[in-house]
Amino acid sequence: MIRRLYDWTLSLATSPYALWALAFVAFIESSVFPIPPDLLMIPMIIATPRRAFLIAGIATVASVLGGLLGYGIGMFAFESIGQPILESLGKAHSMEEFSTQFNDYGFWAVLIAGLTPFPYKVITIMSGWTAMPLGTFMVTSIIARALRFFIIAGLLWKFGAPIRDFIEKRLGLMFTLFCVVLVGGFFLVRYL
User: CA gyration radius for the chain?
Assistant: First the structure.
């Protein structure tokens, strides 16, 4: 099933409705869909590099709005919708423990999930479930998703198809390492 979703997502990149498809995929990926919008963005930007930043902007706006849906699922429908989504992702076992610490590090959780390959939908649902302040959630989501999508767009715009392999295989690792260093730096400053 995941392979069919992956192939379907890639086929949307060549559609005349590609921007609408990207907005749709970015929106639902932030709350329920398992395939990240990057898979649609990359071929779209390679095909039309002059639209790279428009494509990144659409992905950012749609993803943040989808994140609001995830937040709403967590806040208003966690038992009936949110919990089954998290269970299907194998994240249900740690929900109770996670919720007690989540709001202490909520800004960082949203930032890291928005930048890295960690499923952003898990954090959007958990943010609503733990009643993270909506303002914190929104600001952090905008920063994280814009950084992720605009960095990908900038790399593809500047370097084109040759950078595709790096983005698909290593950019998630680079974002993860960046977040570890960033958070580690703040902990060092705080405790030294």
Answer: 17
DSSP class of 82 = I
Confidence of residue 175 (pLDDT cuts 50, 70, 90): low
Alpha-helical runs (H) found in 77-133: 83-88, 95-102, 106-115, 120-129
Only one residue has tokens 């329920």, namely: 32
Residue 59 · residue 146 · CB < 8 Å: no
Q: With beta carbons less than 8 A apart as the criterion, state whether 31 and 124 touch.
A: yes
CA separation for the pair 84, 78 (Å, rounded): 8
pLDDT tens digits along 50-79: 899 999 999 999 999 999 999 999 889 887
pLDDT tier, 99 (very low <50, low <70, confident <90, very high otherwise): low
Is the model's pLDDT at 26 over the cut of 90? yes
Task: Over range 111-117, report the average pLDDT.
Answer: 72
Distance CA 71, CA 65 (A): 10
pTM for the structure as a whole: 0.75
Closest by CA to 71, choosing from 11, 114, 131, 26, is: 131
